[in-house]
Design brief:
By secondary structure, the chain is an alpha/beta fold. It has a domain at 8-156 and 222-236: Creatininase (Rossmann fold, 3-Layer(aba) Sandwich), CATH 3.40.50.10310. It contains seven helices and five strands. A five-stranded parallel sheet has the order 1-3-2-4-5, sandwiched between helices. The chain is globular, with a radius of gyration of 18 Å. Bound molecules: zinc ion (ZN).
């Protein structure tokens, strides 16, 4: 059995008593929201999910709470992005469905007595990401004693470190940090510029990605997210 003094855990891998021991001290739920989406030849289809899960776990290790399984459902994928042709390796859902799932999920997390819900969105498509944020905003009005914090990692990072990108320098560096064996930088062309139409990359050159840069992003994210979460803990718990 796991140590009862654990401050965090993976919700779906724990028994009720273990869950309640953590929840009693820290009623925070982390909901990593990812996607199954084509991320070029150099990254796996689950990049957004792997990123969201690991960023949630790292934050839970700092501040405590329970990490739920990743929601691998997303709208507005590169599959339907105008001007590009990447029909394969993406599983896309409607905006309406994403809103419904988000509402039903958050509602039940409230019923399960979580006070703070951290919804970390790994997929930067729009309006997908805005839908999650707007549901959180509605729930903040509906449940003033709870707080629903929906955000993407780049929302709390300076622009010179990370901005919204698709399989570019930022996402690829994070993937190299969290799951290096899933990345193949050699699959990127060496003799031309990287572009959205051919490489499914939006943002800075992923050929410059390193594990060290990924670690730098994670460390700054953790610092900023911990400050924000501590403020929320002081108010809502
Ligand atoms: Zn992505």
């Amino acid at each position: 059995m796991k140590n009862i003094n654990e401050i965090w855990g993976l919700y779906d891998q724990m028994r009720p008593q273990q869950i309640e021991a953590i929840q009693k001290k820290t009623p925070i739920a982390y909901l990593p929201w990812g996607a199954i989406e084509y991320h070029g030849n150099h990254n796996p289809t689950g990049l957004d999910s792997i990123k969201a899960l690991n960023l949630c776990i790292d934050l839970a290790k700092e501040k405590g709470g329970l990490v739920f399984p990743v929601v691998h459902l997303a709208a507005n994928l590169i599959k339907s992005y105008p001007g590009v042709d990447f029909p394969k390796h993406s599983i896309e859902f409607s905006e309406k469905l994403i809103r419904n799932i988000c509402e039903e999920y958050l509602e039940q997390l409230v019923q399960q007595d979580f006070k703070i819900i951290v919804l970390l969105s790994g997929h930067a498509g729009e309006p997908h990401q805005n839908i999650l944020k707007s549901v959180a905003k509605e729930f903040n009005k509906k449940y003033p004693d709870n707080y629903f914090w929906a955000f993407a990692e780049f929302d709390i990072l300076p622009d010179d470190l990370l901005v919204a990108n698709h399989s570019a320098l930022g996402e690829t560096s994070l993937q190299l940090y969290y799951a290096p064996t899933t990345v193949d930088l050699d699959s990127l062309p060496k003799d031309r510029e990287i572009c959205l139409e051919l490489d499914a990359v939006s943002g800075k050159d992923p050929r410059l990605a390193t594990k060290e840069f990924g670690e730098k992003i994670v460390k700054t994210y953790l610092k900023n997210a911990s400050i924000k979460l501590e403020e929320l803990i002081q108010i809502y718990i």
